[in-house]
Amino acid sequence: MALKTLTLQDVARVAGVSTATVSRTLSDPNVVSESTRRKVSDAVKSTGYRINRTARNLRTQRAHSVLVLLPDLANPFFSNILEGISSHLSSQGYSMLIASTKQVHDSGERLIDYLDDARADGMIVLDGGLAPDVVEMLANAPQSKPVLTACEWIDGASFPSVRCENRHGTRAAVNHLYDLGHRKIAHVTGPADNVLTQTRKAAFADEIAELRLDLPPDWIIPGDFSLIGGCDAARAWIGMKDRPTAVFCASDQLALGFIAELSRHGISVPRHVSVMGFDDIDLAEQFIPPLTTIRQDRLIIGETAAKMLMSRILNPGDPQAENSAVLPVSLVIRDSTAPPQ
Amino acid sequence: MALKTLTLQDVARVAGVSTATVSRTLSDPNVVSESTRRKVSDAVKSTGYRINRTARNLRTQRAHSVLVLLPDLANPFFSNILEGISSHLSSQGYSMLIASTKQVHDSGERLIDYLDDARADGMIVLDGGLAPDVVEMLANAPQSKPVLTACEWIDGASFPSVRCENRHGTRAAVNHLYDLGHRKIAHVTGPADNVLTQTRKAAFADEIAELRLDLPPDWIIPGDFSLIGGCDAARAWIGMKDRPTAVFCASDQLALGFIAELSRHGISVPRHVSVMGFDDIDLAEQFIPPLTTIRQDRLIIGETAAKMLMSRILNPGDPQAENSAVLPVSLVIRDSTAPPQ
DNA sequence: CTGAAAGCGCTTACAG
DNA sequence: CTGAAAGCGCTTACAG
């Protein structure tokens, strides 16, 4: 017994006005007279009318939704960013669609579809590792709707972006270890082709050089941002003849895995080695030991990205639009770092 | 220089057929002759045409998307479930919209909107704690689109649901501890008003009774599924005159917080006390010590929920539709449990 | 197998 | 301030 869908027509009939008037009352109440406004809102209330967004979207040529593209839905790192994005979007009456690159088998064709088939008005990309052809498609998509990257970014592409102070954060980490007295500092990196990996690795090397410290090649330990990667790195560290006294990991997950694996080998942090992460995920504070790390406020990253994208959606071609935002990070000192010995 | 949007008209003109034929070729190629099909697909290719989903949706009265409602976007527990849902939906050409109850300020009005304003064809609710009035609105929504709960469920409402074997998992946990030799077993619960809390707590008490073990009231320690809740519970445990030798926590996060707090007090797991969780989140395996827990496969929970919802969307009113699925859990024995002493 | 035409439920110039 | 009417881009009975 599906009730007949209520339409503007029904409301108009009840209110004794035209559909145009009802529509105006709903979207721009000020252009309607006080008395009409009242009649219409009464009719809306009494009928229980709800606007059909699909119809409105078709008419206005807007989807009123935004697509967020993640590398991997199962990575908790992104949860807070999504929360930030969704929070701003919903305040603007927009919804958030989510897709993960992992799932988009047909290499981008599917992604472009979201923008081209009018399901989304713009896109926030959280995966800097998009295939180059996908990137090009995005940049040249016929409808060319706004696309923006957050956290990561895409080298060689000119999408606006929201990032955190990766260089500054990395340098702060190294300096913290240096100030504790460490002179032998290693770095566990993210996956090789990742922009964050490259940025942090370069900043790390720069700072080490500036401090005139040694940096044997094997002190740059390749990782992949994951717990497992951290475990592998720990075994690499254990196998070194000349062990660094401190290790800066490019992500908290790496650091947690690193510490966990050391612990399985009877090596204790920070007694035998100091370990730092990057991100300040929820668990960093609860780990044993609580993790010293570089904090990025992912909620704000998400909100900022959503705001920038919305402004481009609402004011296309605005030359005033900011092209990038760099958000601050901060050093959070906990118990996983200590003076050497 | 936004190009004019390509429409079916354009393709029809190029192919030398009617729009009806183009539409048919796209949606149901079999009803079209071989030669026409070829002409049309050539035209689609040469023009680069992409269907406008909004128009199709308006015409077919389908949104081709599903809303997923979470209690909290920032909780990593849900990531894998979302991955499972999204994976099945996208294989069916559906998209996934996400909202969190935390954000829906206007108490459900906003939620119903998603279903009523034609943005979603159905809804998967992962939050059993929805306000009763919201639940009633959902059940009685004029359009009454399919709604389904997963993981948690709503007492008193008759939505179809996907759950895991909460009772069985709880009993398996208690038995594991019993088999190790523990006779003094405590339970840290989730938030009081949560259905999972109630189910697991009852199953715990039942099994303890069946094993003829003591259960002083303060051995049921109130928690809230979170890390912090686990820390609080640990302090409660520490303060007990007669300390249980084993603790079954209603979630992994609780267990991790519990262990972390004990460790800060110099109490070691499993030497001084055995601790178990429930869920098997990614981190459980990497924690120190690796956590013994009850594993639920959240990817499959998500996929199952998506499948059940899709079947209700595609075959509304099908009396054959399954009304609930109960998914298996398994005991994963790691290092956080050991014989007493 | 194919086409002409109506219509999904809105919004918005255009008149008045 | 308000209404009549066109139209957003599709799909689908209805004819043929």
Please characterize this protein's 3D structure:
With 341 residues, chain A is of the alpha/beta class. The first copy, chain A, has two domains: 65-164 and 298-327, 3-Layer(aba) Sandwich (Rossmann fold); 166-297, Rossmann fold. Chain A contains twelve helices and twelve strands. The first copy, chain A, has helices at 8-15, 19-27, 34-47, 53-60, 79-91, 109-116, 132-140, 166-180, 195-210, 227-238, 252-264, 298-314, and strands spanning 65-70, 95-100, 123-125, 147-150, 161-164, 185-188, 220-221, 246-249, 274-279, 292-296, 324-327, 329-332. In chain A, helix 2 (19-27) crosses helix 3 (34-47), helix 5 packs parallel to helix 12 (298-314) and helix 8 crosses helix 9. At the A-B interface, helix 4, helix 5, strand 2, helix 6 and helix 11 of A face helix 4, helix 5, strand 2, helix 6 and helix 11 of B. Chain A binds a DNA duplex (16 and 16 nucleotides) through residues 5, 7-9, 17-21, 23-24, 27, 31-33, 36, 51-61, 118.
Name some characteristics of this structure.
DNA-binding; 12 helices; Rossmann fold; 6-stranded mixed β-sheet; 42% helix; elongated; 341 residues
Number of strands of chain A: 12
Relevant CATH superfamily of the largest domain in chain A: Response regulator
Largest sheet descriptor of chain A: 6 strands, parallel
As for the CATH topology of the largest domain in chain A, it is Rossmann fold
Structural class of chain A: alpha/beta
Q: What is the helix fraction of residues of chain A, given as a range? A: 40-55%
Quaternary class:
homodimer
Largest interface, counted with CB-CB under 8 A? A-B, 59 and 59 residues
Percent of residues in β-strands of chain A: 15-25%
Rough outline of chain A: elongated
Which regions of chain A have little confidence, pLDDT < 50, spanning 5+ residues? Answer: none
Describe the strand arrangement of the main beta sheet of chain A, using strand numbers: 2-1-3-4-5-11
In the CATH hierarchy, what is the architecture of the largest domain in chain A at level 2? 3-Layer(aba) Sandwich
Average pLDDT confidence of chain A is: 90
CATH C-level label of the largest domain in chain A: Alpha Beta
Order of helices and strands of chain A: HHHHEHEHEHEEHEHEHEHEEHEE
Any idea what the radius of gyration of chain A is?
26 Å
The number of helical segments of chain A is 12
Distance between the termini of chain A: 76 Å
